[in-house]
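In response to a reviewer's request, we include the raw inputs and outputs for one of the modeled complexes. The four entities were modeled together in a single run.
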Amino acid sequence: MYHEIQIRPRFSETDANGHINNTVPAVWFEEGRATLVREIAGVRPSIIIARFAIDFVREMTFGHPVTIRTGIARFGEKSFAQRQESWQRGQLCARAETVECGWDSVNKRTVRISDEIRNALAPYMFEDQPVEPAMNVT
Amino acid sequence: MYHEIQIRPRFSETDANGHINNTVPAVWFEEGRATLVREIAGVRPSIIIARFAIDFVREMTFGHPVTIRTGIARFGEKSFAQRQESWQRGQLCARAETVECGWDSVNKRTVRISDEIRNALAPYMFEDQPVEPAMNVT
Amino acid sequence: MYHEIQIRPRFSETDANGHINNTVPAVWFEEGRATLVREIAGVRPSIIIARFAIDFVREMTFGHPVTIRTGIARFGEKSFAQRQESWQRGQLCARAETVECGWDSVNKRTVRISDEIRNALAPYMFEDQPVEPAMNVT
Amino acid sequence: MYHEIQIRPRFSETDANGHINNTVPAVWFEEGRATLVREIAGVRPSIIIARFAIDFVREMTFGHPVTIRTGIARFGEKSFAQRQESWQRGQLCARAETVECGWDSVNKRTVRISDEIRNALAPYMFEDQPVEPAMNVT
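The model returned the following C-alpha cells for the whole complex.
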C-alpha cells in the first residue's frame, strides 16, 4: 500500500534545460515522507536520514501536477526505509528510496525504531514490484 | 584524483532543524560535477542523470565553508559515474554517487560515451577507499 | 476581485530561525501570478518582471496551508502590476506587488500591453484597501 | 561605501526561460546582507525583515560569477535599510532595498536599533546615486 500526495511544480523548480531540475524531486519526496509518517500514520519519530537514492526514469515538466506515492520498503533494527515514486501525466518519472534511522538527539546516536513506530507504519508496506535500475546502462 | 570546489552555504539552505536541509547537498554536488566536467576536463558531453545516491554522515551547518570533492568512480559503455564527498570543518559529511548516461537529444535515447569524453575524464579517477554505507544500521 | 490558490509549504522552505525563510514567499507569489494570468484569465503575455516588493507582516510556519490571493493593482501603458497577499491560519502574513512589462523578445525591448491582455485581466482588479507599510517603522 | 561578495550561480537557480529565476537574487542578497552585518561590521543584531524590494535591470545567466554590493541606505529609529546591487559581466543587473527592524524576540515587538549596531554599520553608507526605477514604464 502507498499514500499519494499531489504536487504542483513551481516555475522556479525548472532549469535552463526546460524541465524540472534533478535536485527538485528530493524536495517533493520529503513532503511525501513527512505526510505518510506524521499525518497518515500519525507518529512523530525522532529520525535522521542516512541515505537517499533516486532513479530518474523520465523528465518532468512545469504545468502538470505530479503525484508522489510513498510507502514503507522495509524495517531494520535501528532504521526503516521508505520507497517512493513520482508520476506525471500517467507515467512513472522517478523512483526513490530513503533510509531513516532512529535518533537519540540527546546522546547523538542511532537508536532502535520503537514498536509504536513500527506498528503505525506497518500497514503502509509498498508491496509492488521491486525497484529496478532506471535505465539499462552498462 | 579529485577536483575540489568551495561552497558557501546560504542561510536559506538551512531548515527548521537548525542545519542544512537534506535536499541541499545535491545542489552543491551538481556544481561540483559541472565544474569537473566542463571547466576542468573541458568537455561538454550531452548527458542525462540516471541515478543519484547520497549517504549522510554528519550534519552540515550555516556559517562554515563546505568543500566538495569530485572525481570519476567508473566508466560504463553508455554511462559514467561521478563520486563525490562533502567536507565541512575538516570532517566528511556526505558522500554521493551520480550515474550519467550519454544522451542523443534528437532521437531521445541513451548513446555510448565517446572516446573524447572518456579520455578527458580519465585522469580524474577518485581512487580513494570505496564508498561504504554512511551508518551501521540494520 | 482576487484569485486564490492554496500552497502547502515544504519543509525545505523553513530556515534555522524555525519559520519560512524570507526568500520563499516570492516563489509562492510567482505561482499565484502565473495561475491568475495563464489559467484564470487565460492569456499568455510575453512579459518580464521589472520590480517585486514584499512587506512581511507575520512569520509563516511549516505544517499549515497558505492561501495566496492575487489580483491586478493597476495598468500602465507598457506594464501592469499584480497585487498579492499571503494568508496562514486566518491571518495576513505578507503583501506583495509585482510590476510586469510587455516584452518584445525579438527586439529585446518593452512594448505596450495589448488590449486583449488588458481585457482578460480587467475583471481581476484587487479592489480592497491599498497596500500600506507592513510595520510602523521610522 | 559598500562591501562586495562573489556569488557563483548554481545551475538549479536557472529556470525554463534559460536565465536565473527572478526569485533567486533575493537569496544572494540575503548572503550579502548577512556578510556585511555579521562578518564585516561584526555585530549580530536581533532583527526581522519588514520589507524587501528588488528592481530587475538585466537578466543574469549561469556560468558567470555575480558580484553583490551591499551597503547601508539609511537609519530609522527602530529600523535600518540596506541597499544592494547585483552585477554580472560588468553590468548592473538588479538593485534591492531591504528594511530590517530591531526585534525583541521575548516580547515579540519591534525595538530601537542600538547605538552599538548604528556605530558598527555607519561606515558602510552606500553613498552612490539613489536607487531609481529599473525601467521607464508607465
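As requested, we also summarize the result in words. The two ends of chain C are 32 Å apart (CA to CA). Chain C has two helices and six strands.
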